[in-house]
Amino acid sequence: MMKKLVLTAAAVALSATTSLAATEVTWWHAMGGELGKKLEEVAQKFNESQSEYKVVPVFKGTYPETLTAAIAAFRAGQQPAIVQVFEVGTGTMMAAKGAVYPVYQVMKDAGEPWDTKGFLAPVTGYYSDASGNILSMPFNSSTPIMYYNKDVFKKAGLDPEVAPKTWAELATMGKKIVDSGAATCGFTLSYAATWVGLENYSAIQDLPFGTLQNGFGGTKTEFTFNGPNQAKFWDGLKKAQDDKVFKYGGPGGAAESAPMFYSQQCAVYMGSSASRAGVINNAKGFQVGFAPMPYDDTVTKEPKNSIIGGATLWTLNGQKDKNVYKGVAKFFTYLSKPEVQADWHQFTGYLPITNAAYELGQSQGYYAKNPGSDIAIKQIMRGTPSDNSKGVRFGNLTQIRDLVDQQFEAVLSGKKTGQQALDEAAKQGNAILREFEAANSN
Amino acid sequence: MGPVFGPVLIGIVMQTKRTVFQARLLPYALLAPQLIITLIFFVWPALQAVRQSFMREDPFGLSEKFVWFQNYTRLIGDASYLNSLSVTFVFAAGVTAVSMTVSLLFAVCVNRAIKSGRFYTTMLVWPYALAPAASGLLWWFMFNPSVGLIPYVLNMVGYDWNHRLHEGDAMILIIIAASWKQISYNFLFFVAGLQSVPHSLTEAAAIDGAGPVKRFWTVVFPLLSPTAFFLAVINITYAMFDTLPIIDAVTTGGPSQSTNILVYKVYADGFIGLSLGPSAAQSVVLMLIVVLLTVVQFRWVERKVQY
User: Fold this and answer.
1) pLDDT exceeds 50 at position A124
2) Structural domain boundaries in chain B
3) Distance, in angstroms, between A379 CA and closest chain B CA?
């Protein structure tokens, strides 16, 4: 017994000395389940590749929980070196100038070579300041795509190899599916009123979401998403719901949306390209088809690129040991490597962030072997991005998305028209933007 | 211990009290642990909230500015806040009424069951052991519009249940979910209250010719009123403060804010929305509402209660 104790003590002492030698870099993240395991594998492989630094990933819950935890930790002086923040928090992070150590600066100060020309422009553009400096390290970016049930299409007498290209086609096909009894609902959406049904809808149709280039031009921005086309689109969704063609899966990421697709109640599901692995695993007993997001041919004949979601890695100021930031720089260089990128992208369905990673996937024959896996990349790369399709950048966007969800629910329950709801959402949203502007100019 | 010994005992205690607590510091030392906990975990955060409610600051606390009552005056004109206020009153009244009526009914039934009473008591107390978030999830699952059993059954009788879209459905659901847990708690107090009603009184009423219903309303219920009053205070406070995990698990305040009660709004605005000043102002107002309600209850309602 005594011997055992001594041995354990020795082992503890030994492990303590080895970890003392390596500088620890704490990394708070929000990836649970399979994605979390893969993330830990990425960190572990980095740790094995060198001995100077040790990245320690810590799971902190959902995206909002992780951001809140990081902010609370920062206020208490206990912040991690790296925190993963979802794209909705970008406005908040960019405004927090004293708290954030911009990634381009981290790399420069550490003398780490950092070539950003090879990065995919639609991804880095989302996270760059006005002078084109990248402020946070793109890590897991995704974009919505369409998943459909080929078997249900066949049952309804539709060609399973042809996905609807426009929202009008989707409505007709959905009606056919419901009328034929192939499924009880045509389609369901995640982020029905926000990321998919308003932000991406506006981008793809090249409609403005807010003034000052959708908020990229500063915090004085105001919402303009209450245009007639967006209103018509929301009214269309309400009509589709009345016809049983569209089924609402709840606010935010819509907890009930994907399950309705898996259980074959709904023939079509639109959600993040990073849901690919989950969709394939859960689609028991039917063939899944992949397609780009539909567009609105009454508004545009040439759909723009879709916009991204997901998260990036922000470096926080205030680590006492300055070596930690050298470790952060080394880790970011490692993350940018084509092999690392391609592995992460292919496993998760998130977008590759460098052209090299995309090309590596092509030369490996990954896209040929996995049909539909490059739809997301092609969708964000098509055409030239306009001010309306570069992305959206607003402070307190989490709160604003909640109130847009609430207004959308008022449309679905027949209390408001699309226009009334969007006008109210823009009004309340602008009030929040003004508060954010004021709080950041104290 | 019969009533005869009561005064004697008190006399002994009072005598000994003087001799034991000679030391001035000892009582404070004994109180200290509880006082320290209260100060650190209740009073200090409450004061922090009051301070923050007069400030405008960015989430990271890099800069702050004293803005007088701006965070408060904004609340008055805020439609979503006024909505939240009325939603909270409907919800608190609903939860208190449902959980107290049902638990009183259960308590009366169990009080009459002589042999199986203990078994039922144990069974009825179980839900109280459950964490609010877990119980919320349970109800979320049962009432889930796409996979839940209850909407399926309701659909067969022609009712289209969907708390994702229908505001009334959502309110009913959170009232049921929040009451369910509280019924156990109320039940325990009502059973104890019923058992302390002297049999001689009900027997006397029975001899005078009062039936069971009459006996309950004229003899038993008035004697229960201190218990009922205490529970009313506790239930209203519960509905206003402790139901956050249930709202979070079941409706997240929707659809269109129809279940966004004050405490959830404080959480959503402060922790998800990161707008700290306005959220702090809301929490101070909420604190004042509960203080006010309790004072009103003790000053006016308590006078009508018979002990």
Assistant:
1) yes
2) 78-304
3) 31
B256 and A407 in contact by Cβ < 8 A? yes
User: CB B269 to CB A399 under 8 A?
Assistant: yes
A64: nearest CA in chain B? B272
Closest partner CB to A439 (pick from B58, B80, B255): B58
CB contact under 8 A, B255 and A409: yes
In chain A, how many domains are there? 2
pLDDT band at B6 (very low <50, low <70, confident <90, very high): very low
Q: Does the pLDDT at position A4 exceed 70? A: no
Residue A431: pLDDT over 80 = yes
B270 close contact with A: CB closer than 8 A: no
How far apart are the CA of B145 and the nearest CA of chain A, in angstroms?
A: 9
**A129 and A183 housed in the same domain:** no
Specify the CATH number for the domain of residue A75. Answer: 3.40.190.10
Min Cα distance B89 → chain A (Å) is 20
Residue A288 forms contact with B (CB below 8 Å): no
Chain B residues close to A435, C-beta within 8 Å: 275, 278
Residues B219-240: tens digit of each pLDDT: 888 888 888 888 998 899 899 9
Among chain B residues, the shortest Cα distance to A404 is held by B256
Domain assignment of residue A16, yes or no: no
pLDDT digits (tens, 9 = 90+) for A164-221: 999 999 999 999 999 999 999 999 999 999 999 999 999 999 999 999 999 988 889 9
One domain, residues A165 and A241: yes
Taking the C-alpha atoms of residue A209 and residue A215, their distance in angstroms, rounded to an integer, is 9
User: Does residue A41 lie within any of the structural domains?
Assistant: yes
Query: Which of A438, A435, A416, A396 lies closest to A226 in space, CA to CA?
Result: A416
Q: How far is B56 from chain A (nearest CA, A)?
A: 6
Residues of B in Cβ contact (< 8 Å) with A412: 165, 255
* Distance in Å, alpha carbon of A72 to nearest chain B alpha carbon: 8
Residue A435: the pLDDT is: 85
Asked whether the beta carbons of residue B254 and residue A438 sit closer than 8 angstroms, the reply is no
Give pLDDT tens digits for A364-411. 999 999 888 999 999 999 988 899 998 899 988 888 998 899 999 999
Tell whether A378 is covered by a domain: no
Is A407 in Cβ contact with B165 (below 8 Å)? Answer: no
Whether residue A297 is found in the same domain as residue A317:
no
Same domain, A52 and A160: no
Asked if A398's CB is within 8 angstroms of B272's CB, the reply is: yes
Q: Determine, yes or no, domain membership for A164.
A: yes
A281 and A345 belong to one structural domain: no
DSSP for chain B reads --TTHHHHHHHHHHHHHHHHTT-SHHHHHHHHHHHHHHIIIIIHHHHHHHHHTTEEE-TT-S-EEE-TTHHHHHHHH-HHHHHHHHHHHHHHHHHHHHHHHHHHHHHHHHHH-SSSHHHHHHHHHGGGGS-HHHHHHHHHHHT-TTT-HHHHHHHHTT----TTT-HHHHHHHHHHHHHHHHHHHHHHHHHHHHHTS-HHHHHHHHHTT--HHHHIIIIIHHHHHHHHHHHHHHHHHIIIIITHHHHHHHTTT-STTTT--HHHHHHIIIIIS--HHHHHHHHHHHHHHHHHHHHHIIIIIGGG---
| Domain match, A95 and A155 both | no
As a whole number, mean pLDDT of residues A72-92 equals 92
- Give residue A383's pLDDT: 87
Average pLDDT over residues A47-75: 93
Q: Does B169 touch chain A (CB under 8 A)?
A: no
Instruction: Note whether A256 contacts B164, CB cutoff 8 Å.
Output: yes
Domain B78-304 coded CATH 3.40.50.720: no
In this structure, the answer to whether residues A302 and A399 fall within a common structural domain is: yes
Q: Which domain holds residue A336?
A: 23-142+309-369
